[in-house]
Write a structure and sequence with these properties.
The protein is built from 14 helices and no strands. Helix 4 packs across helix 5, helix 7 runs antiparallel to helix 9 and helix 12 runs antiparallel to helix 13. It is mainly alpha-helical.
Length: about 325
């Protein structure tokens, strides 16, 4: 009896230690999640403050209904992007509750303002770890998401060149086409799994292969292309709210936005492609409007994206709190 009591006590001590460790881990996750917003907010506030003279020195009347429509399209783009993330995890056999997946995605958005984009992945992991999903599977899905994002933006840019040809951008058309072909070859699950098997041996892990067919991967890429069309229309509306351009140049402006995002993603040294993305927009839009308006639109587009993202994060937080209280 005494022996049984001793074992029971030891078990309780172990459980208590595990509970404390789990509690500390959750505390650190919360600190990381909310603490990340502080440097991001400071960084963005400084960026917009330094560029405030551009707003003051240019006499611009914003067409607010059109601007509101642009915000609506960006909202739709982000929610659809989060849904595509959930779809990828389901295909890879590591999906969780839809609302939790969307919330985890939205909470990870500030991570893109930290160079390297690793914090975006780290911010999503806790929700999946809580559901017992291996971190390596979440990492693979994150990698696939980024590849599909690049492909979608590349296609948008290619199509834009067909509708608005010019000598400057035509020089890069075949290079972009070659990049898209390479991406399409690389997303073949057989190729991806070949390298994942090598990685398994190196890091001594198992079950890293993705159970996705090539047809399913093509379907996912097409969905991402469709989502880039949505944000491209939103960017065109944003542009027209400041400097109206004809409908015939919609695909061109959308394509320039896609190109700026491609280079911004590849420029891992720049937080969310800050500066790099704006530079591409100024060069591209400068071909169809006065340069000062191109500069203004490039900065306002950052505001358009950031404020919309923070609003979505706020909405997700409020809804999450309300649902949590109802469960209690």
């Amino acid at each position: 009896m005494a022996k049984g009591t001793k074992i029971s006590t030891e078990e309780l001590e172990v459980q208590s230690m595990e509970g404390k460790a789990s509690g500390r881990k959750k505390t650190w996750i919360k600190v990381l999640k909310y603490g990340l917003l502080v440097p991001v907010a400071i960084f963005l506030a400084r960026y917009f403050y330094e560029n405030a003279d551009i707003y003051r020195n240019l006499d611009v009347t914003i067409h607010w209904p059109v601007f509101a429509g642009a915000v609506g399209f960006y909202f739709l783009y982000q929610v659809t992007l989060a849904s595509l993330w959930h779809y990828i995890t389901k295909l890879n056999g590591c999906g969780i509750n839809y609302f939790k997946a969307i919330t985890a995605y939205l909470y990870s958005i500030p991570g893109k303002y930290i160079p390297g984009k690793v914090f975006m992945l780290l911010a999503r992991i806790p929700a999946y770890e809580e559901a017992g999903v291996p971190i390596r599977k979440v990492t693979i899905c994150f990698f696939l998401e980024n590849i599909c994002t690049l492909l979608g933006a590349s296609f948008l840019f290619l199509v834009s060149l067909l509708f608005f040809p010019n000598d400057l951008l035509a020089d890069y058309q075949w290079a972009t086409a070659a990049l898209v072909v390479v991406f399409f070859i690389c997303i073949n699950p057989k190729i991806i799994n070949f390298f994942l098997r090598i990685l398994e041996k190196v890091i001594h892990k198992k079950d890293m292969e993705i159970p996705i067919t090539y047809g399913e991967m093509i379907k996912v890429v097409l969905m991402f292309i469709g989502n880039w069309v949505i944000v491209g229309v939103g960017f065109y509306m944003l542009t027209c709210s400041i400097y109206p351009i004809p409908m015939s140049e919609m695909l061109y402006s959308a394509g320039i936005f896609g190109l700026s995002c491609i280079i911004g993603i590849l420029a891992i040294f720049a937080p969310s492609g800050l500066g790099v993305r704006e530079g591409i927009l100024v060069l591209g839009l400068g071909l169809i409007m006065p340069e000062e308006y191109a500069v203004l639109i490039s900065i306002v587009s950052r505001l358009w994206m950031t404020v919309s993202e923070l609003a979505l994060i706020g909405i997700a937080f409020v809804v999450n709190q309300v649902m949590g209280r109802r469960k209690k």
